[in-house]
């Protein structure tokens, strides 16, 4: 397992390097000259040139890349062109909030998906199964901004159970954190829950027909052991694939949900940076997002290794 | 166990089945796939159940063990007694207490009958934990012992490996270790050697024979291979289209078959002493479920079929000698060829 882990980690290094090229190059492809934007519409050609020189945008690309990558490695992602705050600080403030939101959304979606999938797979064709499959279709089809507004209307404005907007860091007050994160996380997680439930239901039904499930029953194992151990470990493989894809989607979805609920996460920072063409911030955020995505893929692969012994190298 | 006790238990009936009827849900509604099967098995005896695919031999045994899917199956029987358990009255939960320590099963496909995601040792050990309350350590130790008993080399190392690291024959040994774990009174072996090479097949049969000698359990051996039957069984039931058509002791059945279907099966068996002889086959196909012929169910394929065989109710099982029954109307007139 250790060998598997190390080889898997080693293979991420070249990928990561490639990603830095793309991240750096991508920004150059975006139309519009940041120097022009910063200098303002009234600026003369000389003023624009001065700004460009100050920012180092006139130097060869390779030099710019080398500068960027070496400082990025030491944790310096540059300074925002507009707020003059270090990019690392902006990301450092927003990232934990976004990760907390995405993580809670993932947990909530699994808490919904796993029991739903088990019940509907075991009660296939009954009204319970039909209700949950209608629920899944709705969960996938309904846009999150609409769902979010409905949740706010119901749980905050009508029932008054949960706050509508805002965020409290967990280290300050865990209870307040939970009450603030619940609605956004539910909004963000519900589409994933529906997708996971549907996927897991299908794979449970497939696994239930396997001979080894009959063997497990023939051993006289209790129903919950047959399902919880013998069926679930095999049926989880496709679910893990789906979860790996969902983690990246959750980061994207977080941008929208953070806006609706006024959560001060990375989404806010990203949105501002994109509208103002704040290149260092965009680069920093994309790099961090890619890192998170790669880490989650690594986690997915390691989970495969746990679930399916054939994947592990011998 | 003393000698007198041993003699007494040898004649004990471990499993008694009377008038077992199994219906399964098909696309066109409920269909009867096992129709009035009755038999009993004594301690220490190996009972063979022979028949073509679809004759109901596996369904019979899966139904007894409560392993048919409940929503698509209806099981009825006048008697279904396993030692002192009345299986017709047990709840699914009570039934799961019986499977393992009292009745256990070995299945046909050693490739797919073991869970690919757990080590072989764990799959044996969990039976001991479930039924005997063994601790993790104790069950692990005994799993290694069981692997050793069924002839898996370097059992301690093999116990930590996964099924895909085993060959077909070795996997079937693991299945036998699982079935043997709680020392059951009845083992049902459902075509355990069909998927294996001939040499491996012989080894597995030898292992089953040895284990039975050692533990004195009853074995129900389901197969379509008469060669295997001749090798291992004491007594044989022949099934056709969901019914028993003949039952007898092994030698009597082979020397003096009393049902044309059994004669046909024997004629289709390759013979070592005369390999040049062309193999006969029974013409036609077994009837489809839900489309059983009137009269004798075998008559469309029977070369001895007479007018009386083609209509009316299915002929009853008749006793033709001590412990020998047949479902053939014409058994008294016919002289059938055996394969001694």
TrEMBL record, chain A:
Instruction: Please tell me whether the keyword Transmembrane is annotated for this protein.
Output: yes
Which residue ranges run through the membrane? 12-30, 99-122, 134-155, 175-194, 239-261, 281-307
- Which superkingdom? Bacteria
UniProt-listed SUPFAM superfamilies: MetI-like
User: Biological process GO terms, please?
Assistant: transmembrane transport
Q: Name one GO cellular component term.
A: plasma membrane
Q: Which Gene3D superfamilies match?
A: MetI-like
* Membrane topology listed for this record: Multi-pass membrane protein
> Per its UniProt record, what InterPro entries does this chain match?
BPD_transp_1_N, MetI-like, MetI-like_sf
Q: Which family does it belong to?
A: Belongs to the binding-protein-dependent transport system permease family.
Protein's name according to its UniProt entry? ABC transporter permease
The record lists the organism as: Pseudonocardia halophobica
UniProtKB/TrEMBL annotation, chain B:
Please provide the Gene Ontology terms (biological process) for this protein: peptide transport
Database matches in InterPro entries: AAA+_ATPase, ABC_Ni/Peptide_Import, ABC_transporter-like_ATP-bd, ABC_transporter-like_CS, Oligopep_ABC_C, P-loop_NTPase
Query: Per its UniProt record, what Gene3D superfamilies does this chain match?
Result: P-loop containing nucleotide triphosphate hydrolases
Membrane topology type = Peripheral membrane protein
Keyword Cell wall biogenesis/degradation among record annotations: no
Q: Which GO terms describe its molecular function?
A: ATP binding; ATP hydrolysis activity
Q: What is this protein called?
A: ABC transporter ATP-binding protein
């Amino acid at each position: 397992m250790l060998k598997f882990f190390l080889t898997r980690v080693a293979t991420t290094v070249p990928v990561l390097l490639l990603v830095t090229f793309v991240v750096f190059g991508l920004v150059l492809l975006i139309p519009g000259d940041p120097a022009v934007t910063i200098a303002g519409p009234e600026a003369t050609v000389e003023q624009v040139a001065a700004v460009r020189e100050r920012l180092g945008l006139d130097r060869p690309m390779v030099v710019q890349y080398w500068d960027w990558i070496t400082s990025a490695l030491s944790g310096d992602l540059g300074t925002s062109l507009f707020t003059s705050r270090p990019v690392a600080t902006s990301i450092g403030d927003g990232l934990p909030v976004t990760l907390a939101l995405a993580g809670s959304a993932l947990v909530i979606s699994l808490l919904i998906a796993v029991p739903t999938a088990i019940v509907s797979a075991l009660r296939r064709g009954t009204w319970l199964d039909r209700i949950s499959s209608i629920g899944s279709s709705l969960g996938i089809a309904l846009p999150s901004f609409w769902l979010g507004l409905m949740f706010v209307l119901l749980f905050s404005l009508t029932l008054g159970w949960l706050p509508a907007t805002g965020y409290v860091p967990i280290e300050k007050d865990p209870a307040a954190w939970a009450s603030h994160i619940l609605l956004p996380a539910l909004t963000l997680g519900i589409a994933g829950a529906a997708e996971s439930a549907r996927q897991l239901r299908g794979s449970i039904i497939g696994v239930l027909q396997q001979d080894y499930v009959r063997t497990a029953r023939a051993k006289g194992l209790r129903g919950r052991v047959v399902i919880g151990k013998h069926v679930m470990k095999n049926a989880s493989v496709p679910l893990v694939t789906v979860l790996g894809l969902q983690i990246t989607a959750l980061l994207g979805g977080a941008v929208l949900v953070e806006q609706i609920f006024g959560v001060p996460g990375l989404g806010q920072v990203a949105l501002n940076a994109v509208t103002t063409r704040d290149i260092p911030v965009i680069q920093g955020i994309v790099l961090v997002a890619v890192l998170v995505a790669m880490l989650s893929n690594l986690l997915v692969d390691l989970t495969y290794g746990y679930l399916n012994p054939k994947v592990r190298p011998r | 166990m003393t000698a007198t006790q041993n003699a007494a238990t040898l004649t004990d009936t471990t499993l008694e089945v009377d008038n077992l009827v199994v219906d399964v849900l098909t696309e066109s509604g409920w269909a009867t796939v096992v129709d009035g099967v009755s038999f009993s098995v004594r301690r220490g005896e190996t009972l063979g159940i022979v028949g073509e695919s679809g004759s109901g031999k596996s369904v019979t045994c899966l139904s007894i063990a409560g392993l048919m899917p409940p929503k698509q199956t209806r099981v009825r029987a006048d008697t279904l007694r396993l030692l002192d358990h009345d299986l017709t009255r047990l709840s699914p939960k009570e039934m799961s207490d019986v499977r393992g320590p009292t009745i256990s099963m070995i299945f046909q496909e050693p490739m797919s009958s073991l869970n690919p995601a757990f080590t072989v040792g764990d799959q044996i050990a969990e039976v001991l934990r479930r039924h005997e309350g063994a601790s993790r350590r104790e069950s692990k130790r005994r799993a290694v012992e069981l692997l050793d008993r069924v002839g898996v080399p370097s059992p301690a190392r093999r116990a930590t490996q996964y099924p895909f690291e085993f060959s077909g024959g070795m996997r079937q040994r693991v299945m036998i270790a699982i079935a043997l774990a709680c020392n059951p009174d009845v083992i049902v072996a459902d075509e355990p050697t069909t998927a294996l090479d001939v040499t491996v097949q012989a080894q597995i049969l030898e292992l089953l024979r040895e284990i039975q000698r050692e533990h004195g359990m009853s074995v129900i051996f389901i197969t379509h291979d008469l060669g295997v039957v001749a090798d291992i069984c004491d007594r044989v039931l022949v099934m056709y289209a969901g019914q028993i058509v003949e039952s007898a002791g092994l030698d009597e059945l082979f020397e003096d078959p009393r049902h044309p279907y059994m004669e046909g099966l024997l004629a289709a068996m390759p013979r070592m002493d005369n390999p040049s002889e062309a193999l006969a086959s029974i013409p036609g196909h077994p009837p489809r479920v839900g489309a059983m012929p009137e009269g004798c169910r075998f008559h469309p394929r029977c070369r001895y079929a007479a007018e009386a065989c083609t209509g009316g109710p299915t002929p009853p099982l008749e006793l033709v000698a001590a412990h020998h029954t047949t479902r053939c109307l014409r058994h008294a007139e016919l002289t059938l060829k055996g394969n001694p």
